[in-house]
Amino acid sequence: MTATAYRGLQQILKPFVDGYLEGEDLAKAWAARDESAIKRVDQLLASAGLTMDAVMAQTLSISLDDLERIDRMIATAEVRRNAILREIDRHRTTWGQELRRAAQQAEEAGFKLIEAQSDKAKTAA
């Protein structure tokens, strides 16, 4: 918002300066931190009973569409991220169950192999 505050200032200054170009030039000089422009803006705002809060409110008003668009983009990205995380959890759960089943089958096969070997050893003796 600070980067575009000069646009809000330009709108606020319109009724207090002569012509559009003077307001635009003053707002740009203010944004460039020109000392004389800063003093002039402070004087104009004080004479109108306004503060920088009014400038920031006007800037917000001008930028509201952009901010809402960014907010929607963030919300869409969050929905996608949550869907991806759910899929990862689902696949992790499925993979974990398959791994446990395979480990259990391997253990059972190992026990059967050990039992078969011990039975052979008994019959050979």
What does this structure look like?
The chain has 125 residues and is mainly alpha-helical. The chain has one domain. It contains four helices and no strands. The longest helix is centred in the C-terminal third of the chain and has 73 residues. It is rod-shaped and about 115 Å long. The N and C termini lie far apart (90 Å). The mean pLDDT is 87.
Describe the structure in brief.
The chain has 125 residues and is mainly alpha-helical. The chain is 86% helix and 0% strand. Helix 2 (20-31) crosses helix 3.
List keywords for this structure.
about 120 residues; mainly alpha; about 0% strand
Query: Separation of termini?
Result: 90 Å
Q: Please give the count of helices.
A: 4
**How many separate domains?**
1
Unreliable sequence segments: none
The number of E-state strands comes to 0
Overall mean pLDDT stands at 87
Main sheet? none
Topology readout:
Blueprint: H1 5-13, H2 20-31, H3 35-47, H4 52-124
Helix pairs in contact: 1-2, 1-4, 2-3
